[in-house]
Amino acid sequence: MTHKPLRQARLESLGEGRFRLEGVLDASTATRILEEGNARFARESGVQLDLAGVAAVDSAGLALLIEWLRGARERGQKMQFLQLPAQLQALARISEIESLLSGSGS
Fold first, then answer.
1. Would you list the DSSP string of the chain?
2. What's the pTM value of the predicted model, to 2 decimals?
3. 20 to 30 Å CA-CA from 38: which of 5, 31, 65, 68?
C-alpha cells in the first residue's frame, strides 16, 4: 500500500508561535489556508512555520508564503520558515526570491 500525499493543506499549532504546515499548497488550497494562517498568526508575537510536511507546492503556494511574510511585516512580527521542501526552494530560486524565504522576514 502506498501513501498518497495529504491533498488538503493543514495548519497545526504547536504552541508558542510555532506551527506546522502539511499537505499540498496549490490554487485549490491556498486561499483557505491563507485566511486560516492570518487569523492564527495575528495572535502571536512571532511565527515559526515548519514546512517539512508540505507534499507538493506550486506558484500559488509560493504566493501564500510571500503574503504571510507581508502580513507579518505589517504586524511587526518576525516570521521564520523552517525545513523548506526542495520543490519550494526551486520555485523560490526561479522567482529570484530564495533569500526572502530563507532570510526569515521581520
1. -PPPP-SS-EEEEEETTEEEEEEEESTTTHHHHHHHHHHHHTT-SEEEEEEEEEEEE-HHHHHHHHHHHHHHHHHT-EEEEES--HHHHHHHHHTT-HHHHHT---
2. 0.87
3. 5
- Asked whether residue 83 is assigned to any structural domain, the reply reads yes
Can you give the residue range of the structural domain that contains 38?
Answer: 10-102
CA dihedral 35, 63, 44, 76 (to 10 degrees): -120
Q: Cα–Cα distance between 75 and 54 in angstroms, integer?
A: 25
| pLDDT tens readout for residues 67-95 | 999 999 999 999 999 999 999 999 999 99
pLDDT tens by residue, 47-60: 999 999 999 999 99
Q: Is residue 5 part of a domain?
A: no
Q: Give the total number of structural domains in the chain.
A: 1
